[in-house]
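step=predict obj=Glycoside hydrolase n=613
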Amino acid sequence: MKSIIVSLFILLGLLSSAQQWTPVQGKMMTRWASEITPDQVWNEYPRPQFERENWQNLNGLWDFTIQKREQALPQKFRGKILVPFSVESALSGVGKSVMPDDRLWYKRSFSVPAGWQGKSILLNFEAVDYAASVWVNGALVGSHKGAYDRFSFDITKYLKNKGQQEIIVCVDDPSSFGVQPRGKQQMPQQGIWYTPVSGIWQTVWLEAVSSEAFLAEAKITPDIDSESVSIIPMLNKPLKPEYMVTATVLKDGKEIASGEVVADRNMDIKIEAPELWSPDHPFLYDLKLTLTNADGEILDEVSSYFGMRKISLGDLNGNQYLFLNNEPLFHYGTLDQGWWPDGLHTPPSDEAMKYDIQLTKDMGFNMIRKHIKVEPDRWYYHCDQLGILVWQDMPSGMVILPEDGQERPARVQHVSRHGDDLNQRSADAAQFEWELRRMIDLHYNSPSIVIWVPFNEGWGQYATCRISDQVKALDPTRLVNAVSGWALRPCGDIYDIHTYQTEVHVPATSLDRASVIGEYGGIGYPIDGHLWNPNMRNWGYQTYHSADELLKNYQYKFDQIVEMKKSKGLSAAVYTQTTDVEGEVNGLITYDREVIKIPVDTLRNIHSVLFEE
């Protein structure tokens, strides 16, 4: 009888949650949207490269309201929002725009598991767009600026001894009226610019760690030439006496190597006859990090992984070329915007996010250029597991500053509302560079990422060579594509042009840089019944209206890429794009992920010629 009553209460709770949330009606949805409930939304552990056992997901229904910035803390919230979907998205259940003079507020309660007594409690936000402040039980615990990097607060001292705890979050987002890094967001949406995203858009969660000390992060650097891996395990704060960290490397579940070092220092572990990571063989080693104090007590255990691989430039037939694991490898991939019709920046589920990557791989591509967006950590985890090379763009900001010793770039989108105040522009540049550094630091351990791209097509481009050098100094293990397309500068490892003409342009060869086509193609094919808005201009750089025409013109452009690889020293090409996005219909897949425009097997067979010896 008791179990029946409990089941009824659970059922009533689920029905109550469902009644408080439904997706915004009349919007394009993907097949995964129907599987979402407030109790089943992004439940996966959000950081696969730094995983602990004790955690609690805070995704689900939160209270929310939108009001003007000058107004005080709201006394009443207007409704429910499904976190982690942005307020503009259909899956949030809201579908409202946030204007530059608006402020978005969130509230929810939670309880701390009884087993966490004596632990420090961390409140983690994987991403909030753009400036967030957080209160716990009425006390301000911290603030953060940046749309694409995670942040955490130790909230232990703000918690009540028992009962329900309260979180309040406020968010300011200037959208396209500011100069902050924001990628393709624009108000109003049009052309190649998409619906803005505001507020929480990745997982919110709690984590229990030792109150004495815990591991904050680890920097993992493989070296295939020396057959070793370097690991720097870092504590949450400098501590004495010294704390020790043991690193255990596992292959197929069996320990093959280990090392021990004082926390915050480097250890090198020998990997005998390493199994190398590549798109054809994406092998990953498991890694366990164990933190102990002077008494030998285990304070923290973290699970991670790494891949043994090397990305470099090398000589091939007198040209600089992209090498992987000391062998030449042509990079061929899609420009991937990472936008979804129902979730905007946020995929409807982890399964949906993996689908795009797997389908790209099945089509015979070995690379994705992640275009001016940073994805959730799990996206890179799937790329690591599936074997996809990643060119990672920095989301474009619109800081207006001159080049070092040069005129400002010719192509600039959406000029800052700050006017010409140099101090403000310098502060905006400092924020951009801080967010760039965060992107590199947070995703340093991912073996799939092989190239950093600080700038795209002159959008907010400034001090290109200084910033290129800065990126290289932060991460000398990867290549730097200083600017992809148009406003090229004599620095970085790659010479990159964009060409959307029917006749694909040939990039110049360089004595010290690899030549690539960072964007080409863009062939539009609108399919009725699968358009974001049938009444708007649905366009591509060239637009056709049948699958046969699309395939014919794709093959024609691709053949030119093959010839450039054979005779012009071309190292890579990026086709625009993975999916249709809003008014752009130049994807290989429709925006709702329902129609694959060229059969997968056909594409894989076409592409195979690029990887023949």
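step=describe
The helical segments are 2-20, 350-362, 377-386, 422-442, 464-474, 547-567, 600-607.
step=end
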